[in-house]
Amino acid sequence: MAEQATLTLGESSYEFPVHVGTEGERAIDIRNLRTRTGYVTLDPAFGNTASCESAITFIDGERGILRYRGIPIEQFAARPNFVEVAWLLIFGHLPTQAEYDAFAGDLTAHANLDEGMKHHFEGFPRTAPPMAILSAMINALSCFHPELHELEDSDQIREAAARLISKIRTIASYAYRHSRGLPYIYPDPHLRYVQNFLHMMFSDPYRQYECDATVRDALNLLLILHADHEQNCSTSTVRMVGSSQANLFASCAAGVCALWGPLHGGANVEVLQMLEQIRRGRITPEEYVKLAKDGDSKVRLMGFGHRVYKSFDPRATILGGVAEQLLAQLGRDDPLLDIARRLEEIALEDPYFIERKLYPNVDFYSGIILRAIGIPTNMFTVMFAIGRLPGWIAHWWEQHRDTGSRIARPRQLYVGPALNETASLSS
Ligand code: SDX
Description:
Elements: E1 4-9, E2 12-20, E3 26-28, H1 33-37, E4 57-60, E5 65-68, E6 71-72, H2 82-91, H3 97-109, H4 115-122, H5 130-144, H6 154-179, H7 193-202, H8 213-225, H9 233-242, H10 248-259, H11 267-279, H12 285-293, H13 314-329, H14 335-348, H15 351-355, H16 363-373, H17 380-400
Antiparallel strand pairs: 1-2, 2-3, 4-5, 5-6
């Protein structure tokens, strides 16, 4: 017999079905709780609430497991190919050679922006935050593609996904070039995804950026490790906006805004600023950790802790190794890596972090890799967004195809003034 959950309220008992996930996780189905009992549940920040059933990504926070469509992320490290993983997340299987070639061809074909869009960049101050530009320009894309507002079949979602995944690189690189008063570099149709992005970022009209294979693989892997993470804040935002039948561009633009926050994707910038503070000698690693433990300081050890991982974030483990290898292969040292390793060493032996199960997360080492590639700090969260975009698209499309999907509309517990308890307007 299927498992049931019993809720006793006063003299009444209610049975609710329990759903069991692929890996044995259990969820009490309370979708008709209010209709049957008049009660709602209260779960601020939704830490105990499954908003949906999803087949895209599985995380086991206690065991530090992360799988995309059942494939452990560690398996992508040997031959990292971000475009292949983007297809896997969106369409649910690794692409055949024909599917891959067609999708890669679409990405190449759609790399350019409408020339009209380029004028938008001129309207931003050079100091404009790149995440503000990214969100605005992803939304602006929908003005140039009205035919992709309604997506009903896999050909249409593939077309929209190819345009977004390709053009996010162009928007990001143009935002960088604009901030430095540099000419925009058009995409080169002979270059593959990551190489073309780095070409648009770092080439000049008279000098082509040469992409080192080590850098190519490191950036492919970094983007793969950021590609999806089930119902995190920004992906839940994309689902929330998409649940109103808003188009894919608008939903992803909203995801960019959620990712920008320093507690979420913005943490990779905060990690670098923390490491730089220590490098400049303003504070020692030991003093910083001490501050982070003091609740009154409002200082956190950025890049540490996670709502779901209560053991190592497997992405941090991989990225720590990538940072070491990349710097060694480039023949460079980065004092920030040594500082990061020291902070990790101190924190992992400190009861405060051990008791709270706080470990390095995806943001702790990613900035050191991006810095070694030459990406400026204020573009780090943009890089997170480039990586996360396929995951947002996959979740939007999964929800869009769910015939049982409804507009998301949580309830609340009202604790404000009772009727006419404050000033009455009738006098
Ligand atoms: C990402 O959800 C995802 O999947 C996100 C992400 C993805 O791929 O989409 O993984 C990407 O956003 C990673 C997280 C990046 N953010 C940071 O690195 C910022 C620093 N980390 C924290 O702010 C915090 O750990 C969060 C936001 C990540 C998680 O916060 P929670 O789950 O709400 O935990 P909490 O704030 O309730 O903290 C529990 C305790 C508190 O202490 P007490 O009140 O029990 O005494 O742990 C402490 C916190 O003060 N704590 C930290 C800490 N993180 C938590 N103390 C010092 N330094 C930290 N980093």
